[in-house]
Amino acid sequence: MRNEILLGGAEGLFILRPTNLRYLSGFTGADSYGLVTEKDAFLITDSRYTEQAAKECPHFEIVRWRDPFPPLGETISALARKTGLEKIRFEPSFVSFALYREISGALGDVAFLPAEKGVDLLRYVKDEEERTRIAKAADIADRAFATLLSKVVPGTTERDLARDLAYEMELLGAEGKAFDIIVASGENGSMPHAIPGRRRLKRGDFVTFDFGALYDGYRSDMTRTVVLGKATPRQKELYNLVLEAQQAGIAAIKAGVPGREVDAAARSVIVSAGLGDAFSHGLGHGVGLDIHEEPFMSARCTKILEKGCVVTVEPGVYLKGWGGVRIEDSVAVESEGVIILTRTPKELLELA
Ligand SMILES: [Mn+2]
After folding, report:
1. Calculated CA dihedral for residues 73, 79, 80, 85, nearest 10 degrees
2. pLDDT tens digits for 118-157?
3. 116 and 170 inside one domain
4. pLDDT band for position 5 (cuts 50, 70, 90)
5. Are residues 119 and 132 in the same domain?
6. Could you tell me the CATH number of the domain that includes residue 97?
7. For residue 99, is it within any domain?
8. Is the pLDDT of residue 41 over 80?
9. Residue 185 sits in which domain range?
């Protein structure tokens, strides 16, 4: 187990976020919890998962809860007493008020407190095995997209394309989608997170695809915008502007740089063209077991990139009533520069 968490002798960490639990234990099921101390590690689950948990989590003691076993609060309280814990810390962004009340009530004089640093901190830098999985997810997404392009024709709906892309990724070995696929055509492209709908593609449309694959628990994230037919001068101009910004963002990345400097490098390109207001979100985010994780690279991001971080670089320009362009890669941060994991070409693609 990767137990590098800084825990005092009488302190435990209660883990709820499924990806944090998976990171520490290897458990891939749902509805389960972890309790980790300096010496012990418990995976708290029910009969649906006990056999799986025993296989996946050799370094964890499997503890059963739920009928006929005691409820969660009592289960944690019993473990706290057995291991002599005085304090249990929890992930403050993931414990609901109801769960907080149940557990703290059952714990009695054992303190139940928010963790100041938790598993997320360990996940910030990806080890080689993790980077390999993300790269594999990126490769699957690249290859699925290459196949999908033949289906991007007039009359097809956004939803058809989203479904086909998901299917292609699964055929290529993905466990599924990294997140709900975005396909935004024509004027829908002005919504950065448009939901694929029944709109039929027509000649002249910009079509934005934002998608990724899930492979061995890890995710990739990429966006490409293509034009159905010949690009207009305005489409070319905006596309090349976003591409220039994206390349400037990538060029600014290396270990030791704060996220806001990377955001600024890309953003200044779009601001200089007078379209600063049309780039309405942060430049990118970390990606790994979760699709969105630290560092969130915006104008306020003071987090320092480290070798082994994996981040997205995804500037966009969105014009209501007209449409939009976004270009996104997932990249691994190196001492000097990056390794680009999503390799689909970025020159403006005009589909015949
Ligand atoms: Mn993204």
Report:
1. -150
2. 888 889 999 999 999 999 999 999 999 999 999 999 999 9
3. no
4. low
5. no
6. 3.40.350.10
7. yes
8. yes
9. 128-351
> Which of these three, 123, 147, 169, is where a domain ends?
123
140 with 289, same domain?
yes
Instruction: Give the Å distance between the CA of 221 and the centre of ligand 1.
Output: 5
Q: How far is the CA of 58 from the centre of ligand 1 (A)?
A: 34
Question: Distance, CA 231 to ligand 1 centroid (Å)?
Answer: 25
Q: Is 254 part of a structural domain of the chain?
A: yes
Same domain flag for 71 and 179 = no
283: pLDDT strictly greater than 90: yes
Distance 253 CA to ligand 1 centre (A): 16
What's the CA-to-centroid distance between 15 and ligand 1, angstroms?
26
Number of domains composing the chain: 2
Q: Would you say the pTM of this structure is higher than 0.90?
A: yes
Helix 233-251 to helix 259-272 angle, to the nearest 10 degrees?
A: 160
Tell me, in angstroms, the distance from the centre of ligand 1 to residue 314's CA: 7
pLDDT of res. 1: 43
Distance 196 CA to ligand 1 centre (A): 16
State what percent of residues in the chain have pLDDT above 70. Answer: 98
In the chain, the amino acid numbered 244 is E
CATH number for the domain spanning 142: value is 3.90.230.10
Residue 3 has pLDDT above 90, yes or no: no
| Cβ(189)–Cβ(207) below 8 Å | yes
* Helical ranges in 84-127 per DSSP H: 97-107, 119-123
CA–centroid distance, residue 154 to ligand 1 (Å)? 27
Residues with CB under 5 A from ligand 1 (ion): 221, 312
Q: How much distance in Å is there from the Cα of 281 to the middle of ligand 1?
A: 11
Quote the ligand 1 centre to 38 CA distance (angstroms): 36
205 in a structural domain: yes
- Contacts of residue 83, defined as CB under 8 A and 6 or more positions apart, other chains included, come to 12, 37, 39, 40
293 three-class SS: strand
